[in-house]
Amino acid sequence: MSRWQNTWAAAIRLATGVGHLPDVAMPPQRPAVFFANHSSHLDFAVIWAALPASWRLRTRPVAGRDYWLRTPWRRWAADRVFHAVLIERMHVTVATNPLALMVAALDAGDSLIVFPEGTRSPDGRLQDFKPGIYHLARARPAVPLVPLHLDNLNRILPKGELLPVPFIARLAFGPALHLAPEEDKVAFLVRAREAILSLHHP
Amino acid sequence: MKLSLARDTLGLVGGTYGLLLVASLITALLRRWKDPERRNPVLLNLAARMKAWWVMVAIFTVALAVGTIGTLVLFTAVSFLALREFITLTPTRHGDHHALFLSFTLALPLQYFLIGIEWYGLFSIFIPVYVFALFSIRTAAAGDTTDFLARIGELQWGLMVCVYFISYVPALLTLDIPGFRGRNANLLFFLVAVVQLSDVLQYVWGKLLGRHPIVHTLSPNKTIEGFIGGTASAAAIGAALWWATPFLPWQAALLAAGITLFGFFGGLVMSAIKRDRGVKDFGDMIAGHGGILDRIDSLCFAAPLFFHLVRQFFTP
After folding, report:
1. Tell me, what's the pLDDT at B90?
2. Distance from CA of B65 to the nearest CA of A (A)
3. Residue B113: count of CB within 10 angstroms of its CB
4. pLDDT tens digit string along B221-253?
């Protein structure tokens, strides 16, 4: 299983031109939450592939259950390749509380990849953040939040397209954030969003 | 798979490796004497470039030894990587997606396939006639007219330089020159060696004597002195390689000068594109050299000229 995951990861890096994230990008303790801008279905695959191998095996992307369980192929990729945490986006109940699933994964020692915009940006511009990442930071304040910026993924596979164009993608990382004591939701969401925007150099 | 090269091709290959060996030795000695602490950026870059040259020459000679198929596969890959660098730097919109997808999956491989089956009548017009017409129709059909002319123009120029122009290098293998059968790989060697050596020599002459930049706003390193010195010495190298070609020494010298001229100004054109896009290099694929497009920019412009001159004057 892990051998195939490394092969998939190498193939994804080769196809998108993204290299490994260096060790300095990784926070000192595990688990961590990696959060990034979202413009393409390939986003989490690229981040997952760019993680150092020891991190990759214990890092799970958080993705919309409605989308990833719709076809057998997607179900296979989400389950067997990426080991995704699938969360309910439409009909959230106590039993399907997304926060509880994410916290459970962190408590089990797995790191997460999340997209705080909640859905893919239609034009590649960073949208406002949904409050999920704030609630996650409040539930587990010790977990470092690592900002990542993906460039050109919306050109490789824009929303609504099935066939990728081989642009060269870029992945930039910033220093890890923590929720400050007394920091309110709006201030934190703005700060987290700024952390990603500051990584964007056109 | 049968590996075969004509005897004089082997001479060219051996000469190339000999030259690389000498250049690597000089680089190593320079570093030992002048920069034992490995800090001088010029010498670090030179060492990185030498390493990359070994890899590039090794790939090139293996492709030639495998034959037409190997050479076509190599240049298909080169085109793919170059076009990828080019369009990544080009502003595109969602409406370009299908034309871009077809550029990589249809136009590019088909161009090399047409060369593979030696259909000159089609490969020489396929991209500028059919691809340009059909892809602009496809982009218009997507309905987004913002910057429309700029967008189709940029994709067309990318295909022109990265696919059409450079595909003339392997197309040299299709030329049927009386008394030269089985030795066409020498033409590739002649073209690539003259272009790459003239790049190096222009740099050296420019460093030694260069005072007057050719175009101030473009590239301060491209000087009139470097240009004249580089062209003259490349012509001399071309003449010295006459024995491996179907040309007389003076013809080889003239062709080498023509190749260098187009290569040099092709490099200027590509510099203008980089300046406009605000980058120094097209990519970072080849350590010390930049992107693949930075390495082949002069070759792109020289290849079609060389092909058509040889076809005009040396084939029946």
Report:
1. 92
2. 27
3. 14
4. 788 888 899 999 999 999 999 999 999 999 999
Nearest 5°: CA angle at A145, between A141 and A150?
A: 160
Cβ-based neighbours of B6, under 8 Å, separated by 6 or more? B182, B183, B185, B186
Taking CB atoms and an 8 Å limit, are B88 and A161 in contact across chains?
no
- Is A166 touching B (CB cutoff 8 A)? yes
> Is B219 a residue whose pLDDT tops 80?
no
Q: Which residue of B has its CA nearest to A123?
A: B94
* Chain B contact set for A155 (CB, 8 A): 92
- What is the rounded average pLDDT for all residues in chain B? 91
Q: What is the DSSP string of A7-24?
A: HHHHHHHHHHT--PPPGG
- What CA–CA distances, in Å, run from B93 to A158, B30, B144, B162, B194? 10, 49, 8, 20, 39
Residues of B in contact with A125 (CB under 8 A): none
Q: What is the pLDDT of residue B266?
A: 92
Q: Do A166 and B104 touch (CB under 8 A)?
A: yes
Task: Provide, as residue numbers in chain A, all residues whose Cβ is less than 8 Å from the Cβ of B101.
Answer: 163-165
Q: Which H, E and C letters describe B34-65, residue by residue?
A: HCCCCCCHHHHHHHHHHHHHHHHHHHHHHHHH
**Residue A17 at interface with chain B, using a CB cutoff of 8 Å:** yes
CA distances from A174 to A16, A110, B273 (A): 21, 21, 31
Mean pLDDT value across residues B285-312: 92
Query: What's the token pair of residue A129?
Result: 């953040």
Are B84 and A155 an interchain contact pair (Cβ–Cβ within 8 Å)? no
pLDDT digits (tens, 9 = 90+) for B19-52: 999 999 999 998 888 888 888 888 888 888 888 8
Q: Is B102 on the interface with A (CB under 8 A)?
A: no
Minimal Cβ distance to B101: which of A17, A152, A165: A165
Tokens of A138: 């409040």
Provide the token pair at A22.
């260096």
Nearest residue, CB atoms, B84 vs list A158, A163, A167? A167
Distance, in Å, from the CA atom of B196 to the CA atom of B14, rounded to the nearest integer, reads 17
Which residue would you say has higher pLDDT here, A184 or B220? Answer: A184
Contacts of B92 in chain A (CB under 8 A): 155
ipTM of the complex, rounded to two decimals: 0.84
DSSP letter for A62, please: E
Residues of chain A short of pLDDT 50, as ranges, are 1
